[in-house]
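note to self: the first set is below, dont mix up w the second
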Amino acid sequence: MIRFEPMSDADFQMYLRKVIPEYATEYVHAGSWHPDEAMARARDQFQRIFSRGPQTPNQTLYTLWDTEKNVKIGMLWYTLDVSRKRKTVFLSDFFIFMEFHGKGYEELVLTSLEAELRAASIERMELNLFWHNTSEREMYQKTGFAPVSVYYGKDLS
């Protein structure tokens, strides 16, 4: 069973140390940001998004636990989009720690999250995925997600 524990300040700092460099790298890889500016841009975005740390309104951060083994397995962040007619959350980030990959946790977390969101009367869950990430794309499709739009780019240099 999966437990969604509100992220502590200490876990939040650990999360930022992991996610900001990864976020910057993804945007460089996608061709959206220049490598020289990527870290600064990523830090700025996260400071703006989490203006009040892990307690920022409409931002939900969880530490993920396997309750049977009593072990921390990953982290998850979603944003409540209050501007929509249908109650929607955007799955901003979700990862399972490397030592727990390939053990079915990804699908189990998504299934558990869906149940939690339905219980909270959330009607839709969305996410963004870099196209080059084929393993995640397959995992999300396997759990019922479908592409809504595709963003294309072409390098002209």
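second set (the one i keep forgetting abt)
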Amino acid sequence: MKVWFWQLIISPHMVNLASELAEIGVDVSYIANQEMSEDRRKQGWLTPPLGKADLKLVPTKNEAVALANSAPNDVLHICQGIRGNGVISAVQSALKKSDRKQIVVMETVDDHGFFGYFKRLIYFCLFKVADKNLLAVLATGLNTADWVVARGVNQNKVFPFAYFLPEAESSHNYPKAPSSRFRFIFVGQFIQLKRLDLLIEALASLPENRDFELAVVGSGALETELKEKAEAMLPDRVDWIGSLPMAHVREEMRTADCLVLPSRYDGWGAVVSEALMSGTPVIVSNACGSAVVVKASGVGGVFRSGILEELILLLHKSLLAGKIDPKQRLCISKWASCLSGKSGASYLLQVLDSLYCDSSTVLPPWHSELS
């Protein structure tokens, strides 16, 4: 089997899936428009290794289309998105012209507000045009699979999916002792979309006698504003850590008792997967795609995006449950191995088998309960 992944960057969110597929004998090529975007570099992203997968860079649309046209007929093309995906859109047009099948990987679509109707209409039209050559949609996110089916895609072509990440590894150069306080953690950009302001307000509403703190990893345009808000509402309770390399972020997660991602919208929210794989429970808004795995984990919880009272309730519930002990952390991290690249590679092969062999229903790897 030959599989070509078409991506805009060499993304840690997809590379691990590609490399694990290659590790089990699949002929994998990972094709990217560029190594890494400047925005992601500023967030501490590093270009991940591809293992046995072959890397091809296509800096221009013409190079991307030429490569797509040169692909052997037996190649399975897995493409990033179906709209707003740069040079990959040109690749998908080339695949359609040559009557080749493609699989689309797509995140949750933010269709709130006035423009939501038009987005739904646009996606309906895009899927209708692509239908003949669309082998499957790998839908990452809580309600993404249902949303795609509602846009006219045959439900037998739609599969719940995730971003499958590397197994959690300890960064021995960055040891950190756990805090004696209950430690919440936020990891992300300081932008309105991430709603760190909502988290600060919610924590400030908890009983004053509760012994907790908030660790904040990241940076962004709202840093000064958020620090002033935290100083006024949560004095002496916030640890501003700044941006860190990914391995160091995992260490911070291991010493926290609960990660909170209150985003107004997040296509997935990889920090959620990273936290669970580190053995840390997660509280997340239902506007984050990764809410699907938080629900499945049975720890932490999911609240309706922007609803302060629901977030306060979950934060208080976590506090009452107490700090995470080593046994609990191990149990959570073992369950969350379902979000690893190995698990994702196995699941993708099952999906392909069901498509080509018309086999029974395939369940996503996070379907099993945390014991």
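remember for set 2: Residues 2-165+340-367 form a domain with the Rossmann fold fold (CATH 3.40.50.2000).
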